[in-house]
């Protein structure tokens, strides 16, 4: 019999403590148990709620964010959604700067939550018009505002050291052999890696990097170098952020959008999970990590990854046959049927 969750004292307590579920298809493919952390169960439907809460609480504790203040951030969308919800709950205003090539659903959601949204053309980090730099300047010029700065704000990483890693350890009864996910800010993989390594240094931490990002080559060969491209939103990094400094990465995988889409499609049709592409890429990496551990002779190793957000946030892109075709990506067969 299932036990009902304990009642919570406030809405912010809904962030974190997400379910962990065994993924049947990936487990069969890897030859071991693959577990998905259901981050779409957070109030903002993504893992970024965790970082949003920790960054805002940290700014309050340091006295930088005062009653009636404003939180400004540059984001691909999910962090902004998390910030808007946390800020609403605590009485702050939200301003979000986002590249204009992100999904319409994210933009519509931010506006619906009451955030002020500014969009800018996507560009390289070195460009002063990059969304991070634009948001930082806005914060400097706005009275009573703070810049969340998720990429180099290590309160982001701390959310996963103190939260996600602890949850994974408890949910697996300490029997976790490997963890992998992609990096955007780096907060999740660094924080979970650090937290799990504190419990057991033998837990293998693997980076799963999309094409177009530079971290795979950095951890494999010591040089920040990117190859190819990806349409995945919110993951992929070209520099070592403050959150990534000291990240205990043991191994690395590079996963294509096509590989990620295979698992997005299978998890939806076979297991009833509607996910975004970053989750599909993470699951593909978890399968690779599981196979690696099995090949070394480990008996049924336990591997976990992050199911980052809901696929309902990508109906105009990932689940749109015209968009997929335009990007040269395979269209899910059930979309062609309709």
Count of individual beta strands: 10
Report how far the terminal alpha carbons are from each other: 40 Å
What is the helix tally?
12
Mean pLDDT: 96
The gyration radius over C-alpha positions equals: 19 Å
* Weakly predicted, low-confidence segments: none
| SSE order | EHEHEHEHEHEHEHEHEHHEHH
Beta fraction: 15-25%
Large-scale geometry: globular
Biggest sheet strand line-up: 1-2-10-7-8-9
How much helicity do the residues have? 40-55%
Largest sheet: 6 strands, mixed
Structure write-up:
With 338 residues, the protein is of the alpha/beta class. The protein is built from 12 helices and 10 strands. The strands form 2 sheets. The chain has a 6-stranded mixed β-sheet, sandwiched between helices. The chain has a 4-stranded parallel β-sheet with strand order 5-4-3-6, with helices on both faces. The N and C termini lie far apart (40 Å). The mean pLDDT is 96.
Short recap of the structure:
This protein is of the alpha/beta class and 338 residues long.
């Amino acid at each position: 019999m299932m036990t009902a969750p304990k009642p919570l004292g406030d809405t912010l307590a809904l962030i974190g403590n997400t379910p962990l579920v065994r993924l049947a298809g990936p487990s069969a493919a890897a030859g071991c148990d693959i577990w998905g952390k259901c981050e779409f169960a957070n109030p903002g439907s993504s893992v970024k709620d965790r970082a949003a809460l920790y960054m805002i609480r940290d700014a309050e504790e340091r006295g930088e964010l005062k009653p009636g203040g404003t939180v400004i951030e540059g984001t691909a969308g999910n962090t902004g959604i998390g910030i808007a919800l946390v800020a609403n709950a605590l009485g702050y205003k939200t301003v979000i700067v986002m590249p204009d090539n992100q999904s319409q659903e994210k933009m519509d959601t931010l506006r619906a939550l009451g955030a002020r949204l500014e969009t800018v053309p996507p560009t390289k980090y070195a460009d002063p018009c990059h969304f991070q730099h634009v948001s930082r300047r806005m914060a400097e010029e706005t009275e009573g505002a703070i810049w969340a700065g998720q990429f180099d704000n290590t309160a982001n990483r701390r959310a996963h050291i103190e939260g996600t890693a602890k949850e994974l350890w408890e949910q697996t009864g300490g029997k976790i052999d490997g963890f992998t996910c992609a990096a955007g800010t780096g907060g999740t993989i660094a924080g979970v890696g650090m937290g799990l390594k504190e419990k057991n240094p033998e837990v293998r931490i693997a980076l799963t990097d999309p094409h177009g990002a530079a971290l795979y080559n950095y951890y494999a060969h010591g040089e920040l170098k990117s190859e190819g491209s990806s349409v995945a939103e919110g993951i992929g990094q070209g520099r070592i952020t403050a959150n990534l400094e000291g990240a205990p990465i043991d191994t690395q995988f590079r996963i294509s959008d096509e590989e990620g889409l295979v698992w997005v499609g299978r998890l939806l049709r076979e297991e009833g999970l509607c996910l975004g592409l970053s989750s599909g890429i993470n699951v593909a990496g978890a399968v690779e990590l599981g196979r690696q551990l099995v090949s070394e002779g480990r008996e049924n190793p336990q591997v976990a990854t992050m199911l980052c957000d809901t696929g309902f946030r990508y109906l105009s892109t990932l689940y749109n046959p015209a968009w997929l075709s335009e990007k040269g990506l395979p269209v899910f067969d059930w979309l062609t049927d309709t």
